[in-house]
């Protein structure tokens, strides 16, 4: 009984020992597996975060400058995703490449003829989209468009002053549109600033335009006087032209009148000559038919020519042509037929 009891006790202890051994084996297999899973998940998260930190997105209308410890290293121009080293090794700085406009404000400038004008211009500009000019813009103004606009206004004001000195006021303000050279003035200003802005700031100038152009009181008075003088000059020229044309018309009319008068004189002379010929013929016929009657008529014609209502003459009355007044008409011979008829 004692042995049996001992055996059972020993068996119980053995069973108990086996039970503990089984539990210990289970704990030994489960403990190592859980840390490795956690480490794997953490590694995946770290890799994902690192990959995300190394990705940079380049948007349309922008360039992205990758700086390495604050210094520009390279420029990304194509829209999309690109790689970079994580911060603090490399950083991504976006640079706006869109079109911008900057106004000069009102500027008091002098023209070539010594007059003052007040002009306001604008400039349309954008950062040139290439590696060198984007980096130049970054270094010049630290990627601050407002600072770039401020410095561009300074360049524009100086260019307005320089360009205005090459133009007369009449070529900028004039009632005759053909004489206005605003487009040439704008082009001159653009040429003054385009190369400087590109070389200094990496900025490309697309357009320069005049927004406003006004005249101070002194210049306005001088302009009005100049315009009045121009109007008076034009009026004088037109008056002179009208007088010249009138003189030409008058001369042509007088020439035509002289020609007509000469033609009429010639025709009158021809008519007169023809009438004299005809009169001579008539006189000849009259003289041939009755010489006494002819002499009487000629004497009367002569008296009608030399004697008028205010003429007083003392002449012999028995001399021609006054003889006709004393003697009367001559006795004309009777026709032969009438004498023959009287005899019976």
TrEMBL record:
GO terms for biological process: proteolysis. The keyword Hydrolase applies. One of its GO terms (molecular function) is peptidase activity. The lineage of its organism: Bacteria, Pseudomonadati, Pseudomonadota, Gammaproteobacteria, Pseudomonadales. Its main location: membrane. It is found in: Membrane. InterPro entries: Band_7, Band_7/SPFH_dom_sf, HflC. Residues 1-32 are annotated as: Disordered. GO terms for cellular component: membrane. Gene3D superfamilies: Band 7 domain. This is Protein HflC.
């Amino acid at each position: 009984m004692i042995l049996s009891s001992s055996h059972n006790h020993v068996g119980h202890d053995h069973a108990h020992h086996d039970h503990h051994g089984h539990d210990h084996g289970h704990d030994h297999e489960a403990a190592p597996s859980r840390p490795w899973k956690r480490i794997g998940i953490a590694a995946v998260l770290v890799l994902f975060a690192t990959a995300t930190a190394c990705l940079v997105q380049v948007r349309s209308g922008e360039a992205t400058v990758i700086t390495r410890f604050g210094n520009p290293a390279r420029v990304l121009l194509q829209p999309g995703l690109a790689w970079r080293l994580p911060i603090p090794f490399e950083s991504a700085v976006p640079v706006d490449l869109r079109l911008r406009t900057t106004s000069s404000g009102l500027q008091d400038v002098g023209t070539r003829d010594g007059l003052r004008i007040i002009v306001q211009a604008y400039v349309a500009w954008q950062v040139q989209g290439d590696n060198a000019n984007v980096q130049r813009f970054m270094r010049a103004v630290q990627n601050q468009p407002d600072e770039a606009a401020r410095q561009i206004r300074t360049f524009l004001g100086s260019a307005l002053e320089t360009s205005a000195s090459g133009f007369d006021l009449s070529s900028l303000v004039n009632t005759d549109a053909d004489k206005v050279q605003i487009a040439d003035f704008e082009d001159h200003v653009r040429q003054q600033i385009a190369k400087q802005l590109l070389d200094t700031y990496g900025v490309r100038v697309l357009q320069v335009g005049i927004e406003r152009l006004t005249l101070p009181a002194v210049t306005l008075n001088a302009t009005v006087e100049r315009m009045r003088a121009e109007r008076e000059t034009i009026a004088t020229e037109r008056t002179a032209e009208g007088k010249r044309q009138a003189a030409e018309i008058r001369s042509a009319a007088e020439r035509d009148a002289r020609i007509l008068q000469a033609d009429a004189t010639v025709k009158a002379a021809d008519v007169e000559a023809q009438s004299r010929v005809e009169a001579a013929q008539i006189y000849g016929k009259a003289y041939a038919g009755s010489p006494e009657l002819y002499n009487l008529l000629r004497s009367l014609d002569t008296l009608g020519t030399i004697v008028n209502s205010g003429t007083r003459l003392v002449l012999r009355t028995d001399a021609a042509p006054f003889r006709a007044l004393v003697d009367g008409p001559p006795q004309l011979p009777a026709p032969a037929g009438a004498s023959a008829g009287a005899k019976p």
